[in-house]
Amino acid sequence: MSVTIKLTGFSELKKELEQLSKSAGKAVLRRALKKSAQPLADMMRDLAPRGDTTTDDLADSIAISSKLSKRQKGLHKRMFRDDKASVEMFVGAGPDPAAVNQEFGNVNHGPQAFARPAWEQDKMAMLDRLSQDLWAELEKSIKRAEAKAARQARG
């Protein structure tokens, strides 16, 4: 199944991001991605099966992060491997291999999907949130950079 999404405004966004240092621009992207993905993570937690104890509770392992576990890194193919200005954020269960069994099922039980249904329900709303959050974070960061430059100019 393929999905086509039309995104606009990236040339304007790129122009604005170029006003910031690379690290400030990446921070803007990370903050906006994390904030806009929070409702998706909450939805996944609501749909994920709960265990009998906190140690086997899949819902509690769902997080938003720019990091993957060692196992997840080995399975992940970075889309922007050589792009030092790119930012990736991941939403989903932690390194628990049981998450895949829950999502897709196995020989002992059928699937109890939680990630895919949450994504299907929230993807367009998340893109809208991301658009708004990106511009808001960008404006805040530019104001901070301008205030810092003004303080330095005053001595």
Detailed description of the structure:
The protein is mostly helical and 155 residues long. It has five helices and two strands; from the N terminus they run ααβαβαα. The chain has a two-stranded antiparallel ribbon. α2 runs antiparallel to α5 (115-154). The longest helix has 40 residues, at 115-154. The protein is elongated and about 70 Å long. The N and C termini lie far apart (59 Å). The mean pLDDT is 85.
Detail the topology: elements first, then pairings.
Blueprint: H1 10-17, H2 22-47, E1 63-65, H3 70-75, E2 90-92, H4 98-104, H5 115-154
Antiparallel strand pairs: 1-2
Helix pairs in contact: 2-5
One letter per element, helices H and strands E, the order comes to HHEHEHH
How many DSSP-defined strands?
2
Distance between the termini: 59 Å
Name the average pLDDT. 85
Strand content: under 5%
Taking all Cα atoms into account, the compactness measure Rg is 19 Å
Q: Describe the main β-sheet briefly.
A: 2 strands, antiparallel
Q: Reading side by side through the largest sheet, how are the strands ordered?
A: 1-2
The poorly predicted ranges are: none
